[in-house]
Fold this protein.
Amino acid sequence: MDGITTSSSFRQRDHLRKDETDRNQKEDEKHLVSNGSLDVRGRIADKRKTGGWKASPFIIVNEAAERLAFYAIAVSMVSYLVLEMHQSLPVAATHVTDWIGAAFVLTLLGAFVADAYLGRFLTIMVFSCIYAVGMVLLTISASIDSLRPPPCVGRVCVPASKNQTAFLYCSLALIALGTGGIKPCVSSFGADQFDETDEKEVYKKYSFFNWFFFAINIGALLGITVLVYVQVQKGYGWGFGIPTVAMFSSIAILAAGIPFYRYQKPMGSAFTRFIQVGVAAVQNHWKGTEVHRETVLFEVDTKESDISGARKLSRTEQYRFLNKAAVITNHEADTTNRWNVCTVKQVEECKSFIRVLPVWASTIALAISFAQLSTFFISQALIMDRKLGSNFLIPAGSIPVFASINALILVPIYEGWMVPILRRQTSHRRGITSLQRMGVGLFVSIFATISAAVVEKRRKDHYPVPFSMSVFWLLPQFFLMGSAEVFTYVGQL
């Protein structure tokens, strides 16, 4: 009898243990992310240990350090090419514009590598190392006399040789490649740290982007003030050497957060999938395929989509022509060949990209205007009176500080004061939508460029003698451009 009682007690205890284990397992599952993100060990990420504001500070500080390095170069390169490499002012401004443009175009390459092969984190690390090598070469170019032409004698300036120019441009090319790989990944990697299905984390993600932008301007502020001043006082070797150290520091800071990050697996090139949708849709259109609301479209039977780590998307009727890519015209054909038939997920992903294109296109004008901060606006400052008091001369490369200071002030004001007021008026959680915020920024940028044009006309008509017009006439255009960036850039993200 005692044996039977003991056996029953054991069974009851095992049952209680099983119930407790099940409860613990369910409790643990509640804290797992739902977007497929993994932790550093390859397991589904736990919200309690990874992501959110545990991981974000490393990304924000890394971005501040990287932007410090980039802006320190961007605002100084025109004067460096003119004063050290003996290029004319228009030629130097053109080369800097081309270099900045190349850095942004190369973001397509960085996005492709991240999506198809390395993932965002590894892409950032690899291209950061390329960036750092470019910074080292630039510092060497500015430090070794044989890599620059001799100083001007009177008005006679010997132009840089082909080898000297090639060495400099090689370093700038590596920096452009590096920033092109980092830029499309770092903000997205930050977004990966927040689970979209968790309302609390979604709200925190909006705040992350504001502070991310704040970090960009902190880096820019230090780059165009402290480092430009160092360049003027100590020379370009020091001026480029310190950003090089900052770049290596940014790599170390990002690496320090490895245990806390959430990682998304590479899901293949989105551009390839978009082309497949187009090819399959055209092929089926030529076959006379018609698509109606009741037409069955192809989708895989699994819970997740066939794109690793991505969830399925529901069918929409917008851009119905593309739905033809998901129609099976030959039931004996291989449905794994995406050049012949695509999934609903793949078609909807392509549609989402098309919907974003007008938003992207609308900001081209702002990008053109913003590029003037490092070229035309600096060229204006170079030939204006930059005296502050009797002893201090403001470096031309530091003039964009007006835009950065405005941005640093405006972000906290917008978050702490304007958003609550707008929220009461619009009932929108963020005060105004992202598109409305971008619209405000684009509208303000119009007045920034008008201001620049008015000041330049006044300089030519009323102050024909160089250095006779105060540089503080440029303050309105920098102030307005900084405001435009605050609204548009954060809305874009």
Observations:
- The chain has 16 helices and two strands.
- The chain has three domains: 28-268, 271-353, 375-492.
- The domain at 28-268 is CATH 1.20.1250.20 (Growth Hormone; Chain: A;).
